Amino acid sequence: MPRRHIRVTGAPEAPLRAALGALRTELGVSGSFPPEVSAEAEQAAQAPARPSYDATDLPFLTIDPPTSTDLDQAMHLSRQGTGYRVRYAIADVAAFVVPSSALDREAHRRVMTLYFPDGRIPLHPDVLGEGEASLLPDQVRPAVLWTVDLDAEGRTLAVDVRRALVRSRAKLDYAAVQKEIDGGTAEEPLALLKEIGELRERLEVERGGISLNVPEQEIVERDGDHTYELAYRAPHPADGWNAQLSLLTGMAAADLMLAGGTGILRTLPAAPDGAVGRLRRTAHALHIDWPHHVSYAELVRSLDPHRPHHAAFLQECTTLLRGAGYTVFRDGDLPGITTHSAVAAPYAHCTAPLRRLADRYVSEICLATAAGQPVPDWVLSALDALPARMAEGARRAGTVERECVDLVEAALLKDRVGEVFDGWVVDVQERQPARGTVQLESPAVIGRIEGTDRLPLGERLRVRLTQADPGVAKVRFVPS
C-alpha cells in the first residue's frame, strides 16, 4: 500500500487517544525528555549564540499549516534588476545545541520529529523547537540565511549563506496565501511567490524533475460535536510554489558542498524499468491515458489530484520514491550517485533542522565552505554514522505514519461495519483469493480488500466494510 499523509483538525476521541497511546508505548517513543536534556534546553534558550550580521530590517514571513509552531523557514522575496533575490532563513539549531551535550545526544537518538494525530514527539524540547529556535512572528531569532539571486527565467546566478539575526513579520498559512495571491491583494514579497515559484516549476520540467501533488487524508471535526470525518485535501498551488523555494535552497546547498568536496546529499537512484512498467499498467487500469511518447514526468504534471482516479495514481507514484537515502562524501572523493532522480539534480536536506537531524549538519558544512573555512571537527566526526541513523529514523517515522492512519481509519469506521461504500480498486496482488487496495470516495479511506476470484483494477466497485477496530483490527473490505 502506498504511503499516506494524514492531518487532524480537532482533538481525537477518547478510544482513538487510547489506541495512539498504546502505539507510542509499543514503539518506545515519548514526548517527554530526560531532566538533563530539558535543563540544557532551558539554559540554551536563554543564551543562544548570536551572530553579528543583522538582517532584522527585512520583513520575512513564514508559510506553514495554521496550527504549526515549529517554524523552520522564513522567506523574503524581492526583485533584483531584471531577476529576483530569494532570501530564505533557516532556524539555526546549532546556535542552541552544543556538540556532544545531553541535548545533542538526545537529538541523535530521536533523529526526527514524529507526528501523531494527537500530538508530536519532537526532535528538540518545545522550549527550543516551538519556542526560542522557531522563527515565530515578531521575534528576533538566529538563523542560517541563504541569499540566492535568480535571473529573469529563475535560474541561479549567485548564492550566499551566512549566519544572521532575522525577524519574521507574519505567520501565514497556505489557504490564506492562495486567497491573497488569487485575489490580487498580496503585497510584492508574497505576490512574487507565485512568479518565482512558476519559473522554478518550469525549470523543473526542463531538467526532468517531478513534484507529486499527492492528496492528504484529513480528519475534520464535524460541527464541534466531537465526531469526525475523513476527507481528501489536494495541495494548493501555493504549496508547490513554497516547495520550490525549499528545493532551490537544497540544490544550492548540494552544489556548494560538491564544490567544497565534503557534504551530505539526499540521493535517489533512477527508478528501474520494471517499476515504471508497473505504473503504466496501473494507469491503464485506472483509465488514465499515457501515450508511449509521453514521459512519466509529463504525465504526472497533467494529473488533477481532485479527481479520484488521478489521486489514486498519484498515491501509487510515491512507490518510485522508495530508495532515497543520505550519501556522505569528504576530502573531494565524490560518490558515484550525486543526484536525486525526482529532483533531477544534486540535492540536500537543509531546510528543516527543527524536525530533522541531518539538516543541522548540512547547514554547518555549507557555512564553513562558503566562508572558506574548514568544516568543524564535530561535524566531520558524525558524518559517517549519519546515513544509517537517518535511515532508522525514517523507518520509524514511516511506521508511525502507517499505523496512525490505520488507527484513525478504524476508529472513525468502528460503528459502520457492514455498511457499503463506493470506491476504486487502486492496487491488486497476484494471489488467490484476490487481494488489493481500495480507495473510498467518501470517507477518505484507503484499505485492504479481499475478493473471491478477481478484483477489477482501476474499476469503480461497491465494497462492504467487514472489520474496523482501533488497536485490534485494521479496516478491511470485501466486494459487495
Report on the architecture of this protein.
The protein is of the alpha+beta class. The protein has 13 helices and 17 strands. The strands form 5 sheets. A 5-stranded mixed β-sheet has the order 2-8-7-4-3, with helices on both faces. Strands 13-14-15-17-16 form a 5-stranded mixed beta barrel. The longest helix is centred in the C-terminal third of the chain and has 28 residues, at 386-413. Residues 1-6 have low confidence and may be disordered.
Question: Briefly, what is this?
Answer:
By secondary structure, the chain is of the alpha+beta class. It is built from 13 helices and 17 strands.
- Give the proportion of residues in helices: 25-40%
Low-confidence stretches: 1-6
Profile the largest sheet. 5 strands, mixed
Distance between the termini: 21 Å
Alpha-carbon Rg, integer: 23 Å
From N to C, what is the helix and strand string? EHHEEEHEEHEEHHEEHEHHHEHHHEEEEE
Give the oligomeric state of the chains in this entry, treating copies of one chain as homo and distinct chains as hetero.
Answer: single chain
Mean pLDDT: 89
The amount of beta strand, in percent, is: 25-35%
Number of helices: 13
Number of strands: 17
Envelope shape: globular
| Largest sheet: spatial strand order | 2-8-7-4-3
Secondary-structure class: alpha+beta
